[in-house]
Each structure stands twice: as C-alpha cells, then as structure tokens.
Amino acid sequence: MYVAMNRFRVQLGSEGAFEDVWRNRKGRLDEMDGFVEFHLLRGPEREDHTLYASHTVWRDRDAFEAWTKSEQFRDAHKSAGAHKPLYLGHPEFEGFASVEGL
C-alpha cells in the first residue's frame, strides 16, 4: 500500500471555496489501476490558515507513479493554478509506503 498526501494551508475564510473546488472537480482517479480511495481531510485552524490534506491510497508506489505520468493526472490538474489565491504557499507532498510484515 502507498499513501500520497498533499497538505494545503487554506487562507482563513476561504475554506468553503476550497472545498467547493474539490467537490466539483473531475478527478479521474477511479480510472486508474491500483487506485483504492480518496479523502479530503480538514485539519486544525491556525492563526492565518486552516490545514487540509488530500489523501489517496494506492495498491503500491508504482500505481501512484503511473497516475502522476498519466493523461488523467494532467487533465485533473490542468486548472490547479487558478485556485492558488485560496491557499498560502505551495501544497506540500508527502508519500508513505506501508512497512511490510507489520
């Protein structure tokens, strides 16, 4: 199993608009071999932002990497730059592989 997460620092007051972007997007994840599930997670509110994480689970790292090189990935992210005013800085990517035998 491989978990891919992107953390977003969403400006205070922009949470509803940010969530609407995700609700109304055409993700295309379900078209990919090895995709298991997706969640958008809302975290704690800080002084100037609310923390969010997009969280996808994949069969393995190879399946995730195939997604990042796919037409579906390019299509799903083609308008991502239009939403940058909603968050502070760039999303922060974190990838996690399951530890075998546990």
The rounded Rg comes to 14 Å
First and last CA, distance = 12 Å
Structural class given helices, strands, pairing? alpha+beta
Distinct helical segment count: 3
How many structural domains are formed by the residues? 1
Order of the strands making up the biggest sheet: 2-3-1-4
Inertia-based shape: globular
Mean pLDDT across residues: 92
**Total number of strands:** 4
Biggest β-sheet strands, sense, barrel:
4 strands, antiparallel
What are the main properties of this structure?
Alpha-Beta Plaits; four-stranded antiparallel β-sheet; single chain; alpha+beta; 102 residues; 24% helix
Compact description:
This protein is α+β, with helices and mostly antiparallel strands and 102 residues long. It is 24% helix and 41% strand.
Give the topology, please.
Layout (H helix, E strand, L loop, with lengths): L1 E10 L3 H9 L11 E11 L3 E10 L2 H8 L2 H7 L9 E11 L5
Antiparallel strand pairs: 1-3, 1-4, 2-3
InterPro entries: ABM_dom, Dimeric_a/b-barrel, Heme-degrading_MO
Protein name: Heme-degrading monooxygenase HmoA
Pfam family, one: ABM
Can you characterise this structure?
The chain has 102 residues and is α+β, with helices and mostly antiparallel strands. The chain has one domain (2-87): 2-Layer Sandwich (Alpha-Beta Plaits). 24% of the residues lie in helices and 41% in strands. It has 3 helices and 4 strands; from the N terminus they run βαββααβ. The chain has a 4-stranded antiparallel β-sheet with strand order 2-3-1-4. A hairpin with a 3-residue loop joins β2 and β3. The radius of gyration is 14 Å and the shape is globular. The two termini are 12 Å apart. The mean pLDDT is 92.
